[in-house]
Amino acid sequence: MKAILTIFLTVCAVYSHGQELTGAHGPANTWEPHWVKIESTNIIYYFQDTARIQKKVERYISDHEAAYVKINEVFQAVLPSKIVFYVWIDRELAKQILHRELGFTLPKTCITHAAIDQTVGHEMTHTLA
Ligand SMILES: [Zn+2]
Questions:
Q1: Which of the ends of the chain has fewer CB neighbours closer than 10 A, N or C?
Q2: What percent of the chain has pLDDT over 90?
Q3: Cα 104 to ligand 1 centre (Å)
Q4: Domains delineated in the chain
Q5: Cα(46) to centroid(ligand 1), Å
Q6: How far is the CA of 35 from the centre of ligand 1 (A)?
């Protein structure tokens, strides 16, 4: 129950954040994702949607947290903040909004935009290395 409430509140809270990300001003576009925020030990995830893919999301997070620990054994990076992962299900929508193909990482800001089916570990290595 608490988890559901947290997710619900976060969805409301991050809605405006989505606009900063795209540089868009004015009222939110109706087609813009309602990001679902899930904070884990090393990474803050924003999922484009989690409906009907709960198991996939849980797997995604555990795989990425494990990869983070393993990759950072090598680089031993101390980041100023947690890595932020925007996880897109719809590559076409991402391209419309971001004007770039997925995935990519902006290492200085620790922000990654990834497709949900991308190789685990690739993008975070850009930030940790
Ligand atoms: Zn790359």
A1: N
A2: 71
A3: 6
A4: 2-128 (3.30.2010.30)
A5: 19
A6: 23
